[in-house]
Amino acid sequence: MQIPIQNIYYLLCYAWNKLEEKDIVNVNEIDSTELVDLFAKVLANSCSRLLKQGLDRYYVEHEDVVMGIKGKLNFTATIKQNILPLSKTVCIYDEFDYNILHNQILKTTIEKLLRTKNLDATIKDELRKVYLKFPPISEIVIRKAMFNQIRLHRNNYHYDFILKVCQIVNENLFIDESKGNYKFKDFTRDEKAMARLFEAFVRNFYKIETSLSVSSDYIEWQFESDNVEDIEMLPIMRTDITLRSENRKIIIDTKYYKEAFQTRYDKQKINSSNLYQLFSYLNNQVTDSEITRNCEGILLYPSIRDDFVYSYKYKNHKIRVMSINLNQNWQKIETDLLNIVA
Q1: pTM above 0.85, yes or no
Q2: Where are the beta strands (DSSP E) in 69-149?
Q3: Helix or strand or coil: residue 304?
Q4: Strand 218-219 to strand 237-238: parallel, antiparallel, or no bridges (unpaired)?
Q5: Could you read off the pLDDT of 150-161 as tens digits, one per residue?
Q6: CA nearest neighbour of 204 among 333, 6, 13, 4
Q7: Residue 124 CA, distance from chain mean position
Q8: Reported CATH class of domain 191-340
Q9: Domain ranges within the chain, ordered by starting residue
Q10: Mean pLDDT for the stretch of residues 174-193
Q11: Which residues lie closer than 8 Å to 261 by C-beta, 6 or more apart?
Q12: What is the pLDDT of residues 13-46, one digit of tens each?
């Protein structure tokens, strides 16, 4: 499923709850259809803005040979190096420094992108100019766990979006050992990764763009048993997205497949397991309240062509199996999503 890179960018902004970053780069000006060019352009623009604003600095501990004494004397190292006759000592001291983890990740990620095969020449030139403006900062071997080690607060929270971009870049860059450069893997081909992205996008879209209450709810099975262990063996039911207003409830189950339908006896049919899952949600969430008895259910698939809507009714439940076309102008995508819950 080839979604335009401009729309991938908007999906990420919503999924990461970073809608304010949506206009950080005019993605419509990018002629390329390659995701690596998109992320490189975003990093170039974001880092340029960050450098003007001022990079984050912390007190970093250094141990070095100095004239006289600075900070805390390392007496053992000083004697071992025999530098006292030169009026020098080995000291441990703190210095207000740019050489901290989140800046190291930024600079290293840009350096890796500059060594990435087939990066657009114009964007590469922009990125190189930004790279040369960085102060002395160590380049490191980036590991996934490092992103969880960074502590963001009110004064440096503007790093959050750019670090998310760095993380997705590093997760999809692979080095070509024979040539020493990098290749970018198109993560949109990973159905599991795109399923998580699509679900997070739809959830946050409705959270941001509507007045509906948005949640992901656990639903109890309406089974009975005299044995507690039997009940505990039941699988957990949790909705992808539950929307509520004062008099309406909608359960949306998002699905991301290259093909939304199953072929049976040369005929296309709705995926049975998806429909059974939604049906279970609707049946088991019913209580004495009218809002649960009238709860609506939607199976929502992304598409890039051949849109579809199939509508059904079971008791009081309105059920739709439908698609949202991600291969169209973003304003039209927004309108279509709002119309689904209108």
Answers
A1: no
A2: 72-73, 88-97
A3: coil
A4: antiparallel
A5: 988 888 888 999
A6: 13
A7: 23
A8: alpha beta
A9: 5-57+99-189, 59-97, 191-340
A10: 82
A11: 268, 269, 270, 271
A12: 999 988 878 777 777 777 777 889 999 999 998 9
